[in-house]
Specification:
mainly beta, 43% strand, Immunoglobulin-like, Jelly Rolls, five-stranded mixed sheet, single chain
């Protein structure tokens, strides 16, 4: 490919890059109170937006070329080295004190030799900042002839005292930058490698469960257990409080009022030990529907990510009906018909209150026919079926089961009752079903053989 052709194609990227920068750099400056945004990659364009520190830049950052508003991007002279960099982006995880080495290949697609002295540029945004001394690039300088390729070894060493968090930086190979229609908050380097490092440690405290989903009757109370296990060699302070859950609720769902919840928790978890935090939910008699909320655990362990410091609580509040469900159907004289009523309980329905099981669903079924003088038939079920779904894994186990020796876990149970009428009186019949301890139910009316 000739140099002019390559630069013509690259120019299109510059126009795109300048447009994106014109849109997003304003957000980077104005959105200082906004939450962190992901890094966007478009070929040679790397646009990163983070909150709060848009004005903080590495001392080695060089200003981007300024362009007067009257001058269009097409009128600007685009003249930079064309390098093929692989990989263009790199992401990995390291513990404090850890080290990572990787290779970057740089191929000169230009028609002239290029002298390169790679350097580190710390992104002028983000919650945590890489120190330049953490990163070395070898060789420190090299000349790449036209069409040739040079390998560079990048070594990242994380200090023992580094904070847990996400870090990012660029390895810049040339000073070529994207032109912009106005002064940019930071330069956009064309020939660079973007890499991100997640500095982490295994949490010293394990919390189980982090999701509580239950069905609670209005006017009733329910107690839940959250188990904390400290696997470290030092005591760790905890201070659970009502809160969190901001990311769990939607526009049509209710947040659990703080007055519903009480928490009983110790102040710390001793080394190599377990404690139980008890959360009691008192549901008012006038409540109904789905409620979301959470517990902020406030664990003094910096290795635990923010979202792992919460226990999500989802409650489905129901009321025991006092009037039955009614459905009419027509039967011919002498026909046979049957009614099957079915309810299902999921595993989460049996979560609360330790190993205590909740009462199984049942139904009060009645059949009414006008020619019977309005009297009701309350037949006994001719068949009762209980069907279970069993997992051999560890699907959503409460803490008292996770450490048990059993290998079987009932995921759901289905209960059904069948009622049959033979040689029925012709006419309109009414089916009445009053469910008990059932969140929902299904019915089937089958007429004839």
């Amino acid at each position: 490919m000739k140099k002019e052709e390559a630069k013509t194609k690259a120019k299109a990227l510059v126009v795109l890059g300048a447009f994106l920068l014109s849109v997003f750099s304003v957000a980077a400056v104005a959105g200082q109170a906004a939450p962190p945004q992901p890094v966007l990659h478009f070929g040679a364009i790397v646009v990163g937006l983070e909150a709060g520190v848009a004005g903080q830049a590495s001392q080695s950052l060089q200003p981007a070329p300024e362009v007067t508003p009257e001058q269009s991007i097409e009128e600007q002279q685009v003249d930079y080295k064309i390098l093929q960099i692989s990989p263009k982006h790199e992401w990995f995880e390291l513990k404090p004190g850890g080290e990572k080495e990787f290779t970057v290949k740089v191929k000169n697609k230009d028609e002239e030799a290029v002298s390169i002295s790679p350097r580190i540029e710390v992104q002028p945004f983000g919650e945590y900042f890489v120190e330049e001394e953490w990163i070395t690039v070898e060789p420190g300088s090299a000349e790449i002839k036209a069409g040739d390729e040079q390998e560079y070894t990048v070594t990242v060493k994380i200090p023992e005292d580094a904070e847990i968090g996400h870090y990012s930086a660029q390895v810049v190979f040339t000073n070529d930058t994207m032109p912009t229609p106005y002064p940019a908050p930071f330069p956009m380097y064309v020939n660079s490698l973007m890499f991100s490092v997640h500095v982490w440690e295994p949490p010293k405290i394990v919390v189980q469960p982090q999701h509580i989903h239950d069905r609670v009757e209005a006017g009733q109370s329910q107690e839940y257990e959250i188990q904390f296990e400290n696997k470290g060699d030092k005591a760790i302070a905890i201070s659970p409080e009502i809160g969190g859950g901001d990311r769990w609720h939607g526009p049509f769902e209710n947040m659990i009022p703080e007055g519903w919840l009480t928490i009983d928790a110790p102040a710390k978890v001793e080394a190599n030990s377990k404690v139980t935090v008890r959360v009691t939910v008192n549901v008012p008699v006038d409540a109904k529907g789905r409620y979301e909320g959470g517990i902020n655990l406030n664990i003094d362990d910096p290795s635990i990510e923010r979202w792992d410091q919460e226990v999500h609580i989802g409650l489905e509040v129901w009321k025991q009906p006092t009037t039955p469900f009614r459905e009419d159907f027509t039967v011919k004289q002498g026909e046979k018909f049957s009614v099957v009523v079915t309810a299902r309980q999921h595993a989460y329905d049996r979560y609360g209150g330790g190993v205590e099981e909740k009462e199984e669903p049942s139904f009060d079924v009645a059949l009414i026919q006008a020619t019977l003088g309005g009297g009701k038939l309350t037949p006994e079920p001719s068949k009762t079926v209980k069907t279970g779904e069993v997992s051999l894994g560890m699907d959503y186990l409460p803490p008292w089961e996770a450490s048990s020796e059993g290998m079987y876990h009932v995921m759901s149970t289905e209960y059904s009752e069948t009622y049959e009428i033979t040689n029925a009186t012709g006419g309109v019949w009414t089916l009445e079903i009053l469910p008990r301890n059932a969140e929902r139910f299904e019915y089937t009316i089958e007429i004839g053989e």
